[in-house]
Amino acid sequence: MKIVLLVGSIVGTKTRIAVRTMEALMKEDNSDTEIVVLDLGKLDVIFSDGRQYFEYEGDTNYVATQLMEADGIIIGTPTFQSSIPGTLKNVFDLLPIYAFRDKQIGIIATAGSSKHFLMVEHHLKPILSYMKGEVIPSYVFIEEKDYDKKVIVNHDTIVRLKRLRDQLLLNLETLEKRKKEIDSMYDF
């Protein structure tokens, strides 16, 4: 099983901290799961120009291919101007419309205040659904006040991150089991 954790911005630290915290939580219980972190701030992803995702080269091809090959994805995104960052939208533009078919997708959103929580509902979830993703309904919204000295200090936030991890893994394991059951019904 392959899970990709995506840091959907090239600037700031809070989303990166949240995704890295999720990476550590994932590694606690899942030694057999391949975990890939895609940090757009550390990769050179070019602007989408309409090519097929596999025609790109370098980091752009790497990001697109990792997302296409993933079983599960957790997208970390800050809130910019009550929306997702352009760098994250560019990643979506690199991929085909069906890119997230049969993929479980969790969301971690960061923002300066609670007033931006609807960004996930009105901007991000519709894009992921349009791209055929199975979006986990409960996402983790993290505010400025949940951090101190570049660490998440709010215990409730850590609990919510663990719940998101557990739900993603449960969904993936259930789907994998069901696919095996269906496959075993056929002789070919």
UniProtKB/TrEMBL annotation:
TM annotation in the entry: none
Q: Give the UniProt keywords, A-Z.
A: Coiled coil, Flavoprotein, FMN, Oxidoreductase
Gene3D superfamilies this protein is in?
3.40.50.360
Does the keyword Coiled coil feature in the UniProt annotation?
A: yes
Record has Ubl conjugation as a keyword: no
Query: In this protein, which residues make up the domain named NADPH-dependent FMN reductase-like?
Result: 1-143
- Please give the coiled-coil regions recorded for this protein: 158-185
Gene Ontology MF terms in the entry: oxidoreductase activity
* A Pfam family: FMN_red
Indicate what this protein is called per its UniProt record: FMN reductase
Organism expressing this protein natively: Vagococcus carniphilus
